[in-house]
Amino acid sequence: MVYRMLAVNIDGTLLHSNGRLHKVTREAVEYVHQKGVYVTLVTSRNFASAKKVAKGLKVKPLLVAHQGAYVGTPDKPILLKRISEEVTLELVKMLEASSSQIRLYHEKYMVGNRVNLPENLIGRSTFSKNEPYFYSHQYVDVLSETLESHPAAPPKIDVVCDRAKVAEDLMAAIEGMYHEVDTVKIQENKFSVVPAGISKWNGIAYLAEYLGIRKNEIAVIGDAEDDIEMIERAGLGVAMGNAPAKVKEAAAWATRTNDQLGVAYTLKEVFRKQQNIEPAAETSKIMLKK
């Protein structure tokens, strides 16, 4: 089978556990790109953070960010869906009653509420000390009050709860009350709220259709539960060695871990015998395809 698109998750897949991109992985991605394959980074990260990772590659990849709400190049979206200002405000008011941490992600900024959750629950921030210069982010005491004076329509809302049961109950409540949005479980105590119909796989499928690529011509690599759909539905779905058992069960096969250069190993195995195909269009030209 000839694969014309490669879609790779970022955290836990492309990057090592320390958040760094290994030189061997970077070279393997370039090797695939030189064969004429479209390289796409797929992530639950916000657009600005995904764009920063993309800059670390030798090639200029396509992006499916914000859990699939942003689809396009690092410079311009082909598809961008948002949660309406009205629904965003209603959701935030409901979430504030649970004392959870709420983060609203826009392409140009992030705004969240200040809560006293343990650091191990909130997790390591994706922001470095230099990022505020190109991606504004702030925390406020009462997020709903900020939204009443400065309405926002974000592509994605992240919610971190103090207990898994609280996250489960909130997801069920949101799904039952709002048809405009979907919830995506990220970890036991963390979930995202995205516009209805948004997912990593749907973002990949939209991009593939835009480029005239069939779904069976897509190879994907992932490690998380929210990668299962794309692993199951692509032409080739590969799970990382560090992925949970249910992710590996959904895959055609499991490769090495991210710290064992699993992506680089997989790309060499899958693409070494594939002949070069028509060169993939540069990202600057993709917007002109239609």
Give a short synopsis of this structure:
This protein has 12 helices and 14 strands.
Describe this structure in words.
The chain is an alpha/beta fold. It folds into 2 domains: 165 residues, Rossmann fold (3-Layer(aba) Sandwich), CATH 3.40.50.1000; 111 residues, Hypothetical Protein, Haloacid Dehalogenase-like Hydrolase, Chain: A, domain 2. The chain has 12 helices and 14 strands. The longest helix is centred in the middle third of the chain and has 14 residues. It starts with a strand and ends with a helix.
Topology (SSEs and partners):
Blueprint: E1 5-9, H1 10-14, H2 23-34, E2 38-42, H3 47-55, E3 62-65, E4 70-72, E5 77-80, H4 85-96, E6 101-105, E7 109-113, H5 119-122, E8 136-140, H6 143-149, E9 156-160, H7 164-177, E10 181-187, E11 190-195, H8 200-211, E12 218-222, H9 228-233, E13 236-239, H10 245-250, E14 253-254, H11 262-271, H12 283-286
Parallel strand pairs: 1-2, 1-12, 2-3, 7-8, 12-13, 13-14
Antiparallel strand pairs: 3-4, 4-5, 6-7, 6-9, 9-11, 10-11
